[in-house]
From TrEMBL:
Name this protein carries in UniProt: Putative replication initiation protein
InterPro entries hit by this protein: RepSA
Organism domain of life: Bacteria
Pfam families hit by this protein: RepSA
Amino acid sequence: MTEPDPRTVPSLFTRDLITLAQRDDFDRIEHAVQRLAGCTQPVQLTGRTTTLDATTHEVLRHYTTDTEPLGRLLVACGNRRASRCPACSRTYAADTYHLIRAGLSGGKGTPEQVRTHPRVFATLTAPTFGPVHNRPTTRTGKPFPCRCGTLHGADHPTLGTPLEPTAYDYTGAVLFNAHAGALWARFTTYLRRAVAHAAGLTTTELREHCRVSFAKVAEFQKRGLVHFHAIVRLDGPDGGTTAPPSWATPDLLTGAVRQAAERAVVTVTSDAIGERQLRWGAQIDVREIARPDRTADPAEPLTDAAVAGYIAKYATKSAEGTGTIDRPLYCATCKGRGRTPTVPGLTAECRTCDGTGLADPLADLKVAAHVRQMIRTCWHLGALPDFAGLNLTKWAHMLGFRGHFSTKSRRYSTTLGTLRGARRTWQAEQARIRDGRPVLDPATTLVLSDWRYLATGYTPGEELLAQTVRDNRAATRRLKREGDSK
């Protein structure tokens, strides 16, 4: 049968795929795409790596991208955001799940005895900056009308938007997001003090008897404000490997969390807005996580798996859930300054953004009015000298929040780096077995590498292959869910 002529195919994607399929090494191209598990924006690298004997400098193995079918190596982007790369975000969520679960149930280098330590799941919310449209429910979960008199649907676009936009405190809302990380740090300081006070110890003495470990993740509410979900655990002085003292109980930890949340405050002073005190909101939820020897809440036990799954779900989300955009708004040419240097000591208006510092006019953004006003407030405050250190123009697309979405204390459990390193080691070992290469001792070998960034993304034909991988994986997940539901 005559092979099709790619030049007669109107679709660029199909034309490129036919060209790739006609190559003798098409199977290697297909394998390179499948190995990325559906990544949407892989990184293209060129370079080489050489493994030498550390003593004799004999070349034991040499790899160069010149031997690849298309002369470059595809590497998964590793983006945690589901809006950017669903495939890599699922890997990130899985790693986060195992990290959180290890700190609750043990494993991955964490002893199983942490399951018997006092543990609580706490949610710290933002305060009110004005009434917003919401969907209140009764204790049984039955919704009733908002204060505007309307019973909003679960996905109604007005949820989270101000009832009176002109009276809403947008400045306070943006400053809270910008200082949420600092407020969390202040909370952890007061938490240790509260635990020490409840035990009749000083903060210094507490280190000799007990250690507070935690892991937290940030989540954006519909109103555009962040709140934190955190696992807090009491350990012995050396962390999870040692048992906490007898006085360290779930009730003591619960009281300490509530006391610390009420006392934590960050004061912001500015000539433009005066003095503001930023605190957590009044809605603070603290629940004990079920232990193997007893259930914290017989009616609705909070299990290790449920908490780990809950944390992992939000680790891959960002501010897009509020309706904002998932990219920076500042002009890349002038870095948001509105001016570019010409000769030493002089600047001129940026031609790319016409001096606005914005990549796109705020009025052209396809976002709700509430989100646009949050972004506009970020841009306004970011231009004030008093708030220059907050980099609000850089983080305007995040509505002012510039902290990490997930963090943990040092001895809570394993690290994401350790989990990723173990996965890379396993993948390298599988490749070694597949290629029939001998085992090399890292202690007696030296690896020299030289890698350079080439581009991002696939060729059109590779994109079709990647989409096939995504479709197949989506079908597998759907069948698995349907099987589990039966």
